[in-house]
Amino acid sequence: MSRQYETVIGLEVHVELATKTKIFCGCSTAFGGAPNTHTCPVCTGMPGSLPVLNKKVVEYAMAVGLATNCKITQVCKFDRKNYFYPDNPQNYQISQLYRIHEMHMEEDAGKLIHDEWEDCSLVDYNRSGVPLIEIVSEPDMRSADEVIAYLEKLRMICQYLGASDCKLQEGSMRADVNLSVREVGASEF
């Protein structure tokens, strides 16, 4: 007797919010630009720099949360990680959670550039601090068609609200796929 399997798919979708400035400072969020030209002491995590939350980030995150029938958490806080990532020097991560499974505001990381000729890695912080919402789905999808339909609907909602341009070619909407396999009808993977 041969076993039959099914896929179980959940997504982590990052959507850059359409603000003109970063989440905690006044630096530009414009796409492109020479490396490290859209930076300041706040978005590079310099000691003593004080972040100020961009109000528009909260407004866009709440609009997407409401448009996707999520429950809005009443208390919002940002936590700083206790470990260092070279492309995210200010170390902020999750704040307000919403329920798809969850949706939260966070900031994008910088871009690591690996130079094979010089055998070194460089960091471009232009993207660091660009506001995002991360939308984590429940593992409810079973096929590529369902994943595509979910992403198209999410993209349409974000674009309609003006919360993001969702330009896939510029990375302003991207998804990580969590894929598991289990026997048909089983609850465990």
Structural class designation: alpha+beta
Shape: globular
Strand order of the largest sheet: 2-3-6-1-7
Number of helices: 2
- Mean pLDDT equals 89
Residue share in β-strands: 15-25%
Q: How many strands?
A: 7
Helix percentage range: 10-25%
Helix/strand order:
EHEEEEEHE
Unreliable stretches covering 5 or more consecutive residues: none
- Main sheet specs: 5 strands, antiparallel
> Alpha-carbon distance between the termini?
20 Å
Rg is 18 Å
Q: Could you explain the architecture of this structure?
A:
The protein is of the alpha+beta class and 189 residues long. Helices cover 16% and strands 25% of the residues. The protein has 2 helices and 7 strands, in the order E-H-E-E-E-E-E-H-E. The chain has helices at residues 55-67, 144-161, and strands spanning 5-16, 97-98, 102-107, 111-115, 120-124, 131-136, 173-183. Strands 2-3-6-1-7 form a 5-stranded antiparallel sheet, covered by helices on one side. Strand 2 and strand 3 form a beta hairpin. It is globular, with a radius of gyration of 18 Å.
